[in-house]
Design a protein that fits this description.
By secondary structure, the protein is of the alpha/beta class. The protein is built from 14 helices and five strands. It has helices spanning 14-34, 42-45, 54-59, 77-92, 108-113, 140-158, 183-193, 197-210, 215-231, 235-244, 249-261, 265-278, 281-298, 303-316, and strands at 46-48, 67-72, 98-103, 121-126, 129-135. A five-stranded mixed sheet has the order 1-3-2-4-5. β2 (67-72), α4 and β3 (98-103) form a beta-alpha-beta unit.
């Protein structure tokens, strides 16, 4: 059994994660300020593309920002359901991807080149490389998950995408004076340090209910929930089950939790990426979601997370 008061020392640096999150927010704000505070024009985020303009409007643009391609037709009813959702999300994501709409009837050569078998079909082009995303009028929450994953992969290549980037945005932001810690966050951290995992989980959730974007609370909650899961595990039994049943997704997820708590970050990530590759349907989604949770624990700016995100993208796309 794992001891009650487990330490994540060497795995998570909440201060560093918080600073990274603040730096990212400042960079995004700098872009918005320089652009006059205006969001990108919706007209520039949703474009109609034909074969003649594909190289200029999609391939070249994909070297700066991911381009999502919606293959559709006027007679296709599911296309009419999906199209407005994608257009609205393109505006909502404010330039983090561009939506290119391709009429398959008018652009049959493009459809053949992408191997379109049915519509609606949605692809992405990143740095000139085409990636299939999904087919059919998928539910909006699933579309958001796919777009978020695409943007995360793209940011590894481009950095933060959205408003134009100038040289001044790449400079390291000046450190800010450290102010008093949020009492709610302090209480959550104290509960975590004391081994009161249930109290820590609830405290972090309370913070997030008021501040859904609080980076430190997100990381703290992921950390507390991880420790809570591992607390009741029989480590020997979990590892034995994972070794003997590599196809058991639940066993692999539990072993990955143990790997991470033990400081074996690459092992945890590699185990779950391989589980995603081997599995399908709901099992695959469970493994993918747990991997995303562990990314939060380690911190989005950790190079091990970046490497694992790339591996996950290769498996998914």
């Amino acid at each position: 059994m794992q001891p009650r008061n487990m330490s994540m020392s060497g795995v998570v640096d909440l201060a560093a994660v918080k600073a990274a999150g603040e730096a990212k927010q400042k960079a995004e704000q700098a872009r918005a300020d320089r652009a006059g505070g205006a969001a990108p024009s919706p007209a520039s985020l949703v474009i109609n593309v034909d074969e003649a303009g594909f190289e200029e409007e999609v391939l070249r643009r994909s070297s700066e920002v991911p381009v999502v391609i919606d293959f559709w037709a006027e007679w296709c009813e599911p296309c009419k359901q999906l199209g407005p959702v994608l257009e609205r999300l393109a505006t909502e994501y404010a330039g983090r991807f561009v939506l290119a709409k391709v009429d398959v009837d008018a652009n049959q050569l493009l459809s053949q080149q992408f191997g379109i078998q049915g519509i609606p079909a949605v692809f992405a082009v990143v740095a000139g490389q085409a990636l299939p995303l999904f087919q059919g009028a998928s539910p909006e929450p699933q579309i958001r998950e796919v777009l978020d994953q695409l943007i995360q992969v793209s940011e590894q290549r481009f950095g933060i995408v959205g408003a134009p980037v100038g040289p001044e945005d790449t400079a390291e932001p000046a450190p800010e004076p450290v102010g008093p810690q949020d009492p709610a966050l302090a209480a959550a951290q104290q509960a975590l340090d004391a081994g009161d995992l249930g109290g820590a989980v609830q405290a972090y959730r309370n913070v997030l209910s008021d501040e859904p974007g609080n980076t430190e609370a997100k990381i703290g909650l992921a950390q507390a929930e991880l420790l809570q899961r591992v607390q009741k595990m029989d480590a020997q039994r979990v590892r034995k089950a994972a070794a003997e049943t590599p196809g058991d997704v639940t066993a692999q997820i539990a072993a990955a939790d143990l790997d991470l708590v033990g400081g074996h970050v690459e092992d945890a990530f590699g185990r779950l990426v391989e589980t995603v590759r081997r599995s399908a349907g709901e099992d695959r989604n469970l493994a993918r979601l747990r991997l995303l949770e562990l990314f939060e624990v380690v911190g989005v700016d950790d190079p091990r997370v970046a490497a694992a995100r790339s591996a996950l993208a290769r498996v998914l796309f």
